[in-house]
Design a protein that fits this description.
CATH superfamily of the largest domain: Chorismate mutase
Order of helices and strands: HHHEHEHEEHEEEHHEHEHEEEHEEHE
Number of helices: 12
Helix content: 40-55%
Pathway: Amino-acid biosynthesis; L-phenylalanine biosynthesis; phenylpyruvate from prephenate: step 1/1; Metabolic intermediate biosynthesis; prephenate biosynthesis; prephenate from chorismate: step 1/1
Mean pLDDT: 91
Structural class: alpha/beta
Function: Catalyzes the Claisen rearrangement of chorismate to prephenate and the decarboxylation/dehydration of prephenate to phenylpyruvate.
EC number: 4.2.1.51, 5.4.99.5
CATH architecture of the largest domain: Up-down Bundle
Distance between the termini: 42 Å
Number of domains: 4
Low-confidence stretches: none
Number of strands: 15
Main location: cytoplasm
CATH topology of the largest domain: Chorismate Mutase Domain, subunit A
Strand content: 15-25%
CATH class of the largest domain: Mainly Alpha
Protein name: Bifunctional chorismate mutase/prephenate dehydratase
Largest sheet: 6 strands, mixed
Length: about 375
């Protein structure tokens, strides 16, 4: 005898609530783990242990004949591990920097619903107190609001997996006295948004920021006779389409932002790459202390002489000291044709003696160096089997 659908749904609801209770218990255990590691001074991440845990869970499910796909199990527990690592990291960082409950303000590009706005909200989740959100009309405006004390933090996109580095932000970092204090990754899920459901063939105007247009170029090229109208941000594009209220005018944005402006999703998953992710940086007036137990990055700026092999000599310093370089970006120096500055991103903590010695050696083979920030990373690379 088959069960009634209502009864089945009630059983699913009960199981889901029980799962939530178990997840809550596991989340609380992360605080016991970090207090233990705080005493032992062990690193927060133990990649070998994480890999062993995943393999044991997959093997256990198979032995018990749970009929669960190994990839399904792995993905779920990778997310659980990420939550545990970030919980422990926030605990140590808040304690180290003596963060107190107060109103926190954060500046970002665009209005409510922009990707920068959503990323800013993700960053301030670690602050349970009141949060003030400040929208900005440009990247320069974000820097100014933090510099002038109107905002405690500024959240800015630095690079995207589809369109690459955001040069305007890199160039602004050349001239700022602000410090990088954090980074996070935010998945970008572009949609076509309109005031009503119409066929894509009826669209004649797309409002968008240049970055989404670049990231969705293949989709746009597939449309006939479409005019592109560039806006200050994705949120401005969505606001414009809502204000025009014309079925043939659409915006490139995200579903959450579209809901804020009463827009409908006409097409989704339109980015050139399936995994479209933007990395955001966080800037503030004051540097942060970073626990030696957490995953740490340092971004520095340097220039080399024009002699042959000068850049190689500089990069060899990091190899000599066993410091992993994760990114190297070059930008022109204004007023000096054909000369470039180099942004070097390292997996390193400047408070460690090894890093301090590497920086001292670097100064001997470069003409200019400046540390832009040393910060904990909220980008947790999942362990794979």
């Amino acid at each position: 005898m088959s069960l009634d659908l209502t009864d089945i749904r009630q059983r699913i609801t009960q199981l889901d609530r029980h799962l939530l209770k178990l997840l809550s218990e596991r989340h609380r255990l992360a605080f016991d783990v970090v207090r233990s590691k705080e005493i032992s001074q062990k690193p927060l991440r133990d990649v070998a242990r994480e890999k062993q845990l995943l393999q044991e869970l997959v093997n256990f499910a198979e032995a018990e004949n749970y009929q669960l796909d190994p990839d399904y199990i792995t993905q779920i527990f990778q997310r659980i591990i990420e939550d545990s690592v970030l919980t422990q990291q926030n605990y140590l960082q808040n304690k180290l920097n003596q963060m107190k409950e107060q109103c926190v303000s954060v500046a970002f590009l665009g209005m409510r619903g922009s990707y920068s706005h959503l990323a800013a909200r993700q960053f301030v989740k670690q602050y349970p107190q009141s949060v003030t959100e400040l929208s900005c009309v440009s990247f320069d405006d974000v820097f100014d609001k933090v510099k002038n004390g109107e905002a405690d933090y500024g959240v800015l996109p630095l690079e995207n997996t589809t369109s690459g580095s955001i040069n305007e932000v890199y160039d602004l970092l050349q001239h700022t006295e602000l410090s990088l204090v954090g980074e996070l990754a935010y998945p970008i899920k572009h949609c076509v948004l309109g005031v009503e459901n119409v066929a894509l063939t009826e669209i004649d105007t797309i409002y968008t920021h240049p970055q989404p247009a670049s990231q969705c170029s293949q989709f746009i090229h597939g449309l006939d006779k479409v005019h592109i109208r560039y806006c200050e941000s994705s949120s401005h594009a969505m606001q414009m389409v809502a204000r025009l209220n014309k079925p043939n005018c659409v915006a490139l944005g995200n579903q959450d932002g579209g809901q804020l402006y009463g827009l409908s999703v006409l097409a989704s998953d339109i980015a050139n790459q399936e995994n479209n992710i933007t990395r955001f940086i966080v800037v503030a007036k004051q540097q942060v202390k970073v626990s030696p137990q957490v995953q740490t990055k340092t971004l520095l700026l340097m220039t080399t002489t024009q002699q042959a092999g000068a850049l190689v000599d500089a990069l060899m310093v990091f190899k000599t000291h066993g410091i992993r370089m994760v990114k190297l970006e070059s930008r022109p120096i204004y007023g000096k044709p054909w000369e470039e500055m180099f942004y070097v991103e390292l997996e390193a903590n400047i408070h460690c003696a090894n890093t301090q010695q590497a920086l001292a050696d670097l100064k001997a083979v470069t003409s200019y160096t400046k540390v832009l920030g040393c910060y904990p990373s909220e980008i947790i690379e999942p362990v794979k089997l």
